[in-house]
Structure prediction request, 474 residues.
Amino acid sequence: MKNSGEIWEIVETKRDAFFELSDRVWETPETNYEEYLSSNEHALLLEREGFRVTRGIANLPTAVMGEAGEGGPVIAILGEFDALPGLSQVAGLAEQRPLTEGGNGHGCGHNLLGSGSMLAAAAVKDYLEKHGLKGRVRYYGCPAEEGGSSKGFMVRAGVFDDVDIAISWHPAAFAGVNNPISLACNEINFHFSGRASHASATPHLGRSALDAVELMNVGVNYMREHMPSTARIHYAVTDTGGSAPNVVQARATVRYLVRARNLPELNSLVERVKKVADGAALMTETTVRSRVISGDANLVGNTPLESLMHAQLERLGLPDFDQADHETARKFQETFSQEDIAASYRRFNVVPKKGQALCDSIFPPDSGDGSIVGSTDVGTVSWVVPTVQMRGATYAIGTPGHSWQLVAQGKLPAAHKGMEHAAKVMAGTAIELISNPDLIEAAKADHRNRLDGIPFVNPIPDDVQPPLPENTDV
Ligand SMILES: [Zn+2]
Prediction:
């Protein structure tokens, strides 16, 4: 604990290069396994900082890992750098205006996420060297968090096998450590095949794959009444088989995203969805083939790690927002609905304050209101390594997720301050863990207890290839 001040100072002296990295990644928004420029920028800065760098880990061309230190425990700090399609937006402007029409944008703040995590890892590296401490710190630059499940493929490849603890963060409206519910999920394509025919002259000879897709969707919609209320099922018809109504469609594809509270519930729900697909094929005399595209496990919390990180945060205090930051945030708030702002407070169980635009309190670790926040591939890591994540306050209260407003705030001084703040908490947490092996043991015991012998089944089966741009056969 006595060391926190020193590690925080190291973060401060190093921060500028990492603010620049974040801004450069913001300027080249790339999506889902196409993050070549962003990944390269991460690798170059890791090399400049003196890390031992491996590019293309787990056979993912845009995944990168840097390691420093010798012996001792291995602390992984996880980062991301992927953007979202269609969210291009001029930086700093509280009015929707694309920078590039139809272009990508950093609508989830992953430009900050990766840079902040690497800043923490670089500070830990310097601290270990300076004090001659045994221990290794690794920065994992993980691509394609938005639907690509790269961490699941990385887990499958064994890149976390010798890691003792994993640490991460995510940009948010408030700072704190809690354990929101993230759902286990599987994304699966169902390809139906039938027989084409003239829809009027010989309709009796056709077997419609599109009919099968429609019947499958009806069947799954009836199933909703009889599944756990925390589960979610979404679908998109990705191939209708063609645009000619006078042809019986011989092929059609529907993509399902099935989510459930944990891996065992997910697996049983996926089996039921597959039965509905089989039923639709039987009814239409078509055939169906299913193919998993990606999947995430649910997040497994860790009480000792959450307490440790929260204590760091309490000692450090809030990000250093000034009057100008608050005024800018207020301009963005004028573009939000009252519901957006109320939802932001509710999610972190913070009492709303009139006129407040930026985070001014740290939410307590037990403030999880049970709200479901979707899925993340950090979940899969958390099944194999005790994992802790904080929320860092980087944008105005009420900013909708995946929105142009979030993109616009990604390079503001408040975003940089929130990122530096998160880096200090993560670096301080890592140093405490390396200095106190008992803390690592406590985290591992908590991890074992929570999983209670439930075997880990990666939601990405062994034969599934990552959805890289060149792997189109999904
Ligand atoms: Zn995100």
Notes: DSSP finds 13 helices and twelve strands in the chain. The chain has two domains: 4-181+299-451, 184-296. The chain has a mean pLDDT of 94. The pocket of zinc ion is lined by residues 108, 110, 145, 170 (CB under 6 Å).
